[in-house]
Amino acid sequence: MITPNPFTPQSGWEPRVFGGRDEELKYFQKILSESAVNRANHIVVLGEWGTGKTSLSKQYKKISQNIGYPASLCPISRINSKSHLKDAISLISEEMLAGFPQAGGDSGLHEKFKKKGSLQPQVQFTKFLLDLWKYIRADLAVVLLDDIQNLDVESGVIDILRSVLSKEEILKNTNYLFVLCSTPKGWEGFIDKHNPVGRFFRKRVYLKSLSRIDTRKIIENSLKNTGVSFSEKVEERVYLDALGHPYETQLLCSHLYDAQIEGQVTADIYDAVFKNALKELGRDYFEALFRRASEREAEVLAILMEKNRPMVIGDVRSVMITEKRAANFPIANVKNFLYRLEEKELIKRNEKGEFEISDPMFLKYLKMFKS
Description:
Layout: H1 22-37, E1 43-46, H2 53-67, E2 71-75, H3 85-99, H4 109-115, H5 121-133, E3 141-146, H6 157-165, H7 168-173, E4 176-182, H8 184-193, H9 195-200, E5 203-206, H10 212-223, E6 229-230, H11 232-242, H12 246-258, E7 264-265, H13 270-290, H14 295-307, H15 313-322, H16 334-343, E8 347-349, E9 355-357, H17 360-369
Parallel strand pairs: 1-4, 1-5, 2-3, 3-4, 6-7
Antiparallel strand pairs: 8-9
Helix pairs in contact: 1-2, 3-5, 5-6, 10-11, 12-13, 13-17, 14-16
């Protein structure tokens, strides 16, 4: 009997099988042990879209609670106005209240928190953490702030968090461990604007794509007892196309699972399924990403797509000239267009300073639907 689809390509949903993050889990357990007896080592989890930051945060929460440390997972929605600093602090505080049941019920902490609304945000948050700690009967409390790139860099929210957690009264009377999750680009903004933030949140966890072995393990473990199997060729093609990107792997496998015939998914149906998966990725993410590019930037992006190799600024200029694409193109501005594409996260620079399409599946989407 075929069971319901075990793959979960929905943002924020936990995968049925969590894997490939053994090092990240061991590191967090080490941080927990150290923070419970010494000063908390606040950490930052960095990963591009769909790399599993939220799923990892949920694992961190489970690990903390299994040991006996209360943990609160706080999703951060977009607040992009400088005038909303108090709103951002209130959002974080409210999410923490919801996540720590010890502070609920008849504690009166909700009412006390609202009465402090007239205070400056830094003072308000300091008093809130001190009041909340009175209801937490543990050596350590873990606060996981997810998607902090949604906070406006200009608002200074993360700098206030750093300042409050550095206060002597907080260090002496509480023991909170904060875990901040962000995209790398989002985190760079906080560091650029508020330099001490980078020095305070020094511990980093970088989420990379899954290895070939881990990808295949996750696929095979997800398929256990479902009545469906993927051929070895299908599993290999999933890895080669998604290159271990967790969300894209889940989405592609979900489409393949739905295309099974008598419980079998074979290579002969792969191309058609892959195209449908790319369409869905385009609808959900890639099309909006592509629309960030201006008309001129899209011309530069097209060169990177067609050549399908890392290129320096001079390479792009050379193509413009030798292939006679420069008739109405401001060649002198190629550098600026590349930098803007990087800023908009359509392309990235490798360790050699060369530019390339940011995501292999995005490259395939461009080739299939935009060339």
